[in-house]
TrEMBL record:
Record keywords, A-Z: 4Fe-4S, DNA damage, DNA repair, Glycosidase, Hydrolase, Iron, Iron-sulfur, Metal-binding
PANTHER family reported in the protein's UniProt record: ADENINE DNA GLYCOSYLASE
The protein's role, per its UniProt record: Adenine glycosylase active on G-A mispairs. MutY also corrects error-prone DNA synthesis past GO lesions which are due to the oxidatively damaged form of guanine: 7,8-dihydro-8-oxoguanine (8-oxo-dGTP).
Cofactors (names): [4Fe-4S] cluster
Reaction(s) this enzyme catalyzes, per UniProt: Hydrolyzes free adenine bases from 7,8-dihydro-8-oxoguanine:adenine mismatched double-stranded DNA, leaving an apurinic site
E.C. code: 3.2.2.31
Keyword presence, Magnesium: no
Higher taxonomy: Bacteria, Pseudomonadati, Myxococcota, Polyangia, Nannocystales
Family membership noted in the UniProt record: Belongs to the Nth/MutY family.
UniProt protein name: Adenine DNA glycosylase
NCBIfam families cross-referenced by the UniProt entry: mutY (TIGR01084)
Leader peptide range in chain numbering: none
HhH-GPD domain ranges (all copies): 40-191
Annotated Pfam families: HHH, HhH-GPD, NUDIX_4
């Protein structure tokens, strides 16, 4: 009698060959391309990644090209994909591979995990999918599948970090072809054993599923009680001078690190007419003579925070100071005309506010 891991492997392999989605990153064994796809797919939908993946690889086709690129070029190519820290870590990772491994992505999971931005899951994905090495990978999708298959009702055993999942995933990927089984587990979680309403009738492993047998497929994993994300209300200030608007590059650490944004100022509940000119001058170094607030805020939801950005315009008091070449105004500052954008990345939220302001 085969053990559970072998029985699952025997069911998953033919199912994956027949039912896998045709995704661009499944048509390659290039470990660099698979690494890029795995980083892009973190917290981001497949259809969104599809729009960026090919373009990014055209611009940066290999580790060497990415490592040699300027960070602003990398952020520009990532612009709109969100979670920009991933792009900076991918860039740092490429530089690490270029200097420590001569530009060749290693196949050893331990070496992979030393690459900036590559954790246990991503190392497992690159090692198994690109190199066909029997290396476990457990993300939220795989954890849900394994929790249901074994009817694990204890929330501590359901999490993607649970040791039991990593042991089981390891047994499964080494019970057949690792690159197929690793992807099959992820695909099953993404397309069949979905969080809400798993499609058990079409599931290839239904004969092995304890949750289905016990009628627990809708209650495993245990729903998480999430506290509402804290909300921040901020003025997004368009300081205007000679028809141009000031953009500032945010510090590398923190939300939207390294991205170009309008200066942001805390919006107090008593502020209605726009950010106070005194505070604008303190934050931007530009004195404004008048401020006008727009009525509707732009909402942007991060993983653990919600921004309500209230656009407002402030006319600079001094307008005849000539701009420097390229409209740059010292490091991390730039004055843009309508339709103009800096070379580095612009996050979607800045785009939305600029559009609202007619820029
Ligand atoms: Fe998930 Fe249903 Fe398949 Fe069990 S039978 S693994 S609950 S889809």
């Amino acid at each position: 009698m085969l053990d559970l891991a072998h029985r699952l492997a025997n069911l998953l392999e033919p199912w994956f060959h027949q039912h896998q989605r045709d995704l661009a990153w499944r048509r390659t064994r290039d470990p660099y391309a698979i690494w890029v796809s795995e980083i892009m797919l973190q917290q981001t939908r497949v259809d969104t990644v599809e729009a960026y993946y090919g373009r990014f690889l055209e611009r940066f086709p290999d580790v060497g090209t990415l490592a040699a690129a300027d960070e602003s070029e990398v952020l520009a190519a990532w612009s709109g994909l969100g979670y920009y820290r991933r792009a900076r870590l991918l860039h740092a990772g490429a530089r690490h591979v270029a200097t420590s491994h001569g530009g060749t992505v290693p196949d050893d999971p331990e070496l992979l995990r030393k690459i900036p931005g590559v954790g246990r899951y991503t190392a497992g994905a690159i090692a198994s999918i690109a190199f066909d090495r029997p290396t476990a990978l457990v993300d939220g999708n795989v954890a849900r599948v394994l929790s249901r298959l074994q009817a694990l009702e204890n929330p501590k055993q359901q999490d993607a970090s649970a040791a039991g999942h990593w042991i089981m995933a390891q047994k499964i990927v080494q019970a057949g072809q690792p690159r197929v089984l690793a992807q099959a587990l992820m695909e099953l979680g993404a397309t069949v054993c979905t969080p809400m309403g798993p499609r058990c009738e079409g599931c290839p492993v239904r004969s092995e599923c304890q949750a289905l047998a016990k009628g627990l497929q809708s209650t495993i994993p245990t729903p998480k009680q999430r506290a509402p994300s804290p909300r921040e209300d901020l003025w997004a200030v368009a300081v205007r001078r000679n028809g141009r608007v000031l953009l500032e590059q945010r510090a590398n650490e923190g939300l939207l690190g390294g991205m170009w944004c309008l200066p942001l100022i805390e919006r107090k509940s008593t502020d209605r007419a726009g950010a106070p000119p005194r505070v604008i001058a303190e934050v931007t170094g530009v004195k404004v003579k008048s401020v006008e607030a727009l009525v509707e805020p732009v909402k942007h939801v991060f993983t653990h925070r919600v921004w309500m950005l209230w656009p407002c315009r402030g006319e600079a008091a001094v307008v005849d100071v000539p701009f420097r070449a390229g409209y740059e105004d010292g490091p991390g500052r730039m004055w843009i005309a309508p339709g103009e954008r800096p070379r580095g990345g612009i996050p979607k939220v800045t785009e939305k506010v600029l559009e609202r302001l007619g820029y």
